Amino acid sequence: MTTNFGTLTPAELTSAVTGGIGTSPQRPDGNLKVRGEFAYASDLWHEDMIWGATLRSPHPYARITGIDLTEALKTPGVYAVLTHQDVPGRNLYGLEHKDQPVLAVDVVRYQGEPVALVGADHPETANRAMKRIKVTYEVLEPVVDMETATQETPLHPGGNLVRHVPIRRGDQAPKADVVITGRYEVGMQDQAFLGPESGLAVPADDGGVDLYVATQWLHVDRSQVASALGVAEEKVRLTLSGVGGAFGGREDLSMQVHACLLALHTGKPVKMVYNREESFYGHVHRHPAVLHYEHGATADGKLVYVKAKMFLDGGAYASSTPAVVANAATLGVGPYEVDNVTIDCYGVYTNNPPCGAMRGFGAVQAGFAYESQMDKLAEALNMDPVDVRVRNAMTEGSVMPTGQVVDSAAPVAQLLKLVQDKPMPAPMSADLRQLPGGVSNTTHGEGVVRGVGYAVGIKNVCFSEGYDDYSTARVRVQMAGDELTAQVHTAACEVGQGLVTIMQQIVRTELDIEKVTVLPMDTSIGNGGSTSASRQTYVTGGAVKAACAAVKAKLGDRTDIGDEVIDETVEWRHRATEPLDPETGQGNAHVQYGFAAHRAVVDVDTELGLVRVVQLDCAQDVGKALNPQAVVGQIQGGSAQGLGLAVMEEIQTSQGKVRNPSFTDYLIPTVLDMPPMSIDVLELADPHAPYGIRGVGEPPTISSTPAIVAAIRAATGLALTRVPVRPEHLTNT
Amino acid sequence: MRVNVTVNGEQRQADDVWEGESLLFMLRERLGLPGSKNACEQGECGSCTVYLDDVPVCSCLVAAGQAQDRSVRTVEGLASGDSLDPVQEAFVEAGAVQCGFCTPGLVVAAHDLLERVPSPSDPEIREALAGNLCRCTGYEKIMDAVRLAAGRR
């Protein structure tokens, strides 16, 4: 793997201690994780605990006409069976609109919606008791088509439109030499984090509850739990346990309120752990999308206009659909300069599974469509696909469709050139294991063709549209023996990305203190904001840096402070953003933009429709790589999730019912599916961000998918307007 | 029922085991060894991989009762005291650990590979680890870790 650390290493970023920023020290939790001793949420145990379980609706849309708990309550070993009548506070919750019941009342709007809870002495006892709960349903005709949903049965009092974001910029009736149209579809992707939803709720003497849980955002979980329990927020204390991945899927509540309800009702600690099938029902997914695009360009390939109409299926409840819609709309033309833009993006309610945050958050769906259009434009003009992109590439100073000026590096053309200049892989292998189908021995090369494809993408970093996005950090310095040591405390969630390492590195660099301990993340300190939008290194990193500055003001140059303890807590905000104009979509809505480009090389067995991605190279600007190893790990992991969406991952639904809720039927890439990935990292500092950093996690997920599909098109000559590309799309069967 | 089993070299006994319980559940919930993970519980993800009489298995697919009078080695049994096994050490150094939920299974699978094939080729590594899903890394740094561990043994 080549890693190119380019262009900027300011002298002030060097540190006297080892393990500061710009280096790749080992994760503080690494040893525990490889030994199997790191405590994930599903590993928690209390000597007095019982097990919680959730009865879910088998129907996508139905009226509940009765619930009979009699037989379930008689089951030996059962401590409690609860319904919506046992929710003491508000039975509705949600990230943006409070529209989702903690437990269903008289209607269920998706298959898997929670209806009742059981607390029992063994998971199997709980299962048996759940089977004895008699729920009678009047099954209703589900709304399942995102393009017509707003004209169908209203599923919520305000109708089925969650949000419409229009963008109007420049000439609304432009003329162009060449006009390219396309309709694209994106299937429903699952985060498929490996650690299932789980947690342990322990009732407290003060009438409150202590919840140990795997989540992305402790404080917003807390406010939603407190509201449902009808208790003051300070009586709900959350501590982050080990989190087995997240990728957006833990931004909404899953078992948090349910476990706390059971704990307060029974007076016992309650553990809840979803199995994989329940996990598919228990969290939101990536919005499936239908995207209609029209690109107009001059004969020499300069974009004149982009028009788009996009539909995002939010499923039964709003979750973060409003923000996803805004992302798809505002990033809808991609990293290109376009003077005339007309976009309408609609997020709708249906009876499909609820959709919300997943890595890339609206930018992924738009990215597949606009990059497919750029390839189509190149083909129409007989231009090279990279050249047509470079011809239109955004740079620093370019204007977004929202009117926002891009005011830091936007090396779009450079990133494309970097991946274009990468060495190509060896010609098609004679080794069976390297061919499509692999050890299944489906081909020895006959019917196999190779293709190369490119894509580039744009993603906003941090929360947008005027949201008050901040993080809180506390840094405490004292002597241990004859050495200064530091502790750092936040409520920002470590979900695997390596924030724990980054926080240590920042403290080491800022205070020249080598021994830095990261305290458990919990709600005893102020809000850390969400681990999403590629924002934690930026915002919580910024807060830790600011807290260090406050400590440094008291510490000075001293290396011995005797019995003194310096303890500083700081709330830190990035620069403010503005709401979008509701009519024109104009406004400085985003904090920062991140860019990545991919080149994919694929081999396709055209007879069987099997694809093997041979090589997947990426170039990304990260502003400043605080931890180069972790940065490359994020880019490779994000690229892999993009590969999954390109060729295998989809939650398939039929009339609102999920057909493949298991790892047997929902396939994520294995090590055999993943090719070697060479990563070029640019470091073009953003002057507005701490250390110049640019959020890293999401951009690679956007360009990976369209690059792979472009390569499959190049190999096969097929149009391929839908992801994931399935074998039948390649064989016309 | 009662199950007698040797785990990580120690004779252990689990009582009140339900006939439907998996070896994974018994290890995690009855024997205090939650290192083996529960990501799919149907043999697809490999997170629960343990040695059963020196053969790696998905412990979620083995009934607890089947381990009677047999020997199990889990991820918790690979290190010698404070010193990590070379595979464990390489996973941390290479950056092969992010969320870490797949790590115990991958460490056992990689450990088994290197016991059988001390210097595996890349295709051999990929084939040996194909039963272990990772969602964070894209596997590149896991490949790096296995190569690193092989070079050190």
From TrEMBL, chain A:
Biological classification of the source: Bacteria, Bacillati, Actinomycetota, Actinomycetes, Pseudonocardiales
Pfam families in UniProt: Ald_Xan_dh_C, MoCoBD_1, MoCoBD_2
SMART domains for the chain: Ald_Xan_dh_C
InterPro entries recorded: Ald_Oxase/Xan_DH_a/b (IPR000674), Ald_Oxase/Xan_DH_a/b_sf (IPR036856), Ald_Oxase/xanthine_DH-like (IPR016208), AldOxase/xan_DH_MoCoBD1 (IPR008274), AldOxase/xan_DH_MoCoBD2 (IPR046867), AldOxase/xan_DH_Mopterin-bd_sf (IPR037165)
Annotated ranges, domain Aldehyde oxidase/xanthine dehydrogenase a/b hammerhead: 35-141
Protein name, entry field: Molybdopterin-dependent oxidoreductase
Organism whose genome encodes this protein: Lentzea tibetensis
Molecular function terms from GO: iron ion binding; oxidoreductase activity
TrEMBL record, chain B:
Protein origin, superkingdom: Bacteria
Record-linked InterPro entries: 2Fe-2S-bd, 2Fe-2S-bd_dom_sf, 2Fe-2S_ferredoxin-like_sf, 2Fe-2S_ferredoxin-type, 2Fe2S_fd_BS, Beta-grasp_dom_sf, Diverse_Oxidoreductases
Pfam families in UniProt: Fer2, Fer2_2
Segments forming domain 2Fe-2S ferredoxin-type: 1-78
Keywords for the protein's UniProt record, in alphabetical order: 2Fe-2S, Iron, Iron-sulfur, Metal-binding, Oxidoreductase
Tagged with keyword Iron: yes
Presence of keyword Hydrolase: no
GO MF term list: 2 iron, 2 sulfur cluster binding; metal ion binding; oxidoreductase activity
PANTHER family hit by this protein: OXIDOREDUCTASE WITH IRON-SULFUR SUBUNIT, XANTHINE DEHYDROGENASE IRON-SULFUR-BINDING SUBUNIT XDHC-RELATED
Name of the molecule in the record: (2Fe-2S)-binding protein
Organism, scientific name: Lentzea tibetensis
